[in-house]
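User: I've been trying to design a sequence by hand for this structure and keep getting stuck. Would you show me what you'd pick, starting by listing the structure so we're on the same page?

Assistant: Good idea, let's start from the same input. This is the structure you sent:
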C-alpha cells in the first residue's frame, strides 16, 4: 500500500472538482488532519510501500494444471459399489494434489501419482451425479475436469451422519467439543455386521492423516467422542471409515472444515 494521507492531499476543499493540489501542505487545516491520519496508520501497523510492478509469471494460463478423466467415461453407468478412477494430469510447477468431488461433496484428496481414486460408494442415491476432479500445482493454481455418471447401485452399505460439531461454519481452534454422529443402516444390515469405525484428521493441503479414535464393535447407532479442535488455523478434513465383519472398508466419508 502506498503512502496514506488525509483527503486534503488530493482534493482542494474549496474546489473539490478541481485539479490535485500541488502544495497541499499550504492548506491551514492540512497539518492537523494529516497528523490524525499518521497516528492512525501507526496504530494499525500498516506498512506503506509502492505496489509491486513485477509481473506474475507463475499464475498464467499456460501454467494452469491440466487434468483429463480417462475412466469412468461421460454418462457411464455405475453398478458396482467399488469405484475407481483413472486420470491424466500435469502441471508446469508440478502436481501437488488431486481432489475428488461428487456433487460438490469431497470424496478424497490424493497426493501421490498416478492420483487415481479407489473407494466404496455408500449412501449415494441412484441417478445422475457429477464427478469433479481438481488438480492443484505447488503454487495452489488448479485445473479441473468433470463427467456425469449414472448410478444404479443394488447393494446398500451403512453410512453416517454428523450430529456435532456443525462443519458448515468455521470452528474455533484448540476448543473442547465432541464428535457425535449417527449410523444409518440399510435394510438387512445389522449393527453387529460392523467391525469398527475409524475417524481420521488431516490437513487439506498436506499428505498427513492421523487417527483420532476407533469404535470397535459399536453397540449403539449414536456414538460420541470428546475432541479438542486443531490448535492451528487452516483447512482440515475429517475422514470416517466403516469396516464390515471381514474388516473391509465399506464406507468412507471426507468432511472438510476450517479452523480460524
Amino acid at each position: 500500500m502506498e503512502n496514506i494521507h488525509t483527503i486534503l492531499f488530493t482534493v482542494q476543499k474549496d474546489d473539490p472538482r478541481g485539479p490535485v493540489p500541488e502544495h497541499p501542505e499550504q492548506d491551514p487545516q492540512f497539518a492537523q488532519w494529516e497528523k490524525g491520519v499518521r497516528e492512525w496508520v501507526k496504530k494499525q501497523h500498516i506498512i506503506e510501500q509502492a505496489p509491486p510492478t513485477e509481473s506474475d509469471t507463475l499464475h498464467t494460463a499456460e501454467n494452469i494444471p491440466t487434468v483429463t478423466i480417462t475412466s469412468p467415461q461421460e454418462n457411464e453407468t455405475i453398478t458396482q459399489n467399488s469405484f475407481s478412477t483413472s486420470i491424466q494430469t500435469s502441471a508446469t510447477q508440478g502436481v501437488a494434489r488431486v481432489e475428488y468431488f461428487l456433487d460438490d461433496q469431497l470424496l478424497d484428496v490424493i497426493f501421490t501419482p498416478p492420483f487415481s481414486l479407489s473407494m466404496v460408494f455408500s449412501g449415494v442415491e441412484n441417478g445422475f451425479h457429477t464427478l469433479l476432479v481438481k488438480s492443484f500445482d505447488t503454487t495452489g493454481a488448479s485445473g479441473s475436469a468433470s463427467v456425469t455418471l449414472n448410478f444404479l447401485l443394488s447393494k446398500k452399505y451403512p453410512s453416517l451422519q454428523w450430529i456435532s460439531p456443525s462443519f458448515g461454519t468455521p470452528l474455533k481452534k484448540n476448543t473442547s467439543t465432541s464428535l457425535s454422529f449417527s449410523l444409518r443402516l440399510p435394510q438387512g444390515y445389522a449393527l453387529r455386521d460392523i467391525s469398527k469405525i475409524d475417524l481420521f484428521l488431516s490437513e487439506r493441503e498436506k499428505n498427513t492423516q492421523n487417527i483420532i479414535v476407533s469404535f470397535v464393535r459399536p453397540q449403539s447407532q449414536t456414538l460420541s467422542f470428546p475432541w479438542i479442535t486443531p490448535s492451528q488455523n487452516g483447512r482440515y478434513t475429517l475422514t470416517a471409515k466403516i469396516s464390515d465383519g471381514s474388516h473391509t472398508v465399506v464406507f468412507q466419508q471426507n468432511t472438510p472444515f476450517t479452523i480460524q
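That's my pick for every position. To get oriented when you compare it with your attempt: Residues 159-259 form a domain with the Immunoglobulin-like fold (CATH 2.60.40.730). The chain has a mean pLDDT of 91.
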